[in-house]
Design brief:
Length: 109
């Protein structure tokens, strides 16, 4: 599993500067990202089932692996908008919960 915290200018890109990773397992997977500067972010996550470091896509760009966004932003014919996924982080610890969506089914744990 990989979760990236993206400022607006990097949202939906592969090079968000703040990220964390953990091995995926059934149920809840916890990823801790430390020392996040205060600001507005959108989290984007994917289940890297084949460990190649990127989201694999099928025809028309449909993700082959599970993907999800903060605030459980919906994916309807295209990725969510910044405003649907944005949250404000302060210096206090913050928990973000959201689900991954598998459009073509899962192949791994």
């Amino acid at each position: 599993m990989r979760v990236a915290l993206c400022p607006r200018a990097k949202f939906l890109s592969d090079d968000c500067p703040i990220h964390g990773e953990a091995h995926a397992h059934s149920g809840v997977t916890l990823i801790t990202i430390r020392d996040v500067p205060p600001g507005d972010y959108a989290a984007q996550a994917f289940h890297d089932e084949n460990s190649n470091g990127r989201v694999d896509r099928a025809l028309f760009g449909v993700p082959r692996e599970g993907v999800g966004f903060s605030r459980d932003a919906r994916i309807v014919l295209s990725p969510p908008k910044w405003g649907d996924a944005v949250f404000t982080h302060t210096t206090a610890p913050k928990n973000i919960r959201f689900s991954l969506r598998y459009f073509l089914g899962r192949s791994g744990p």
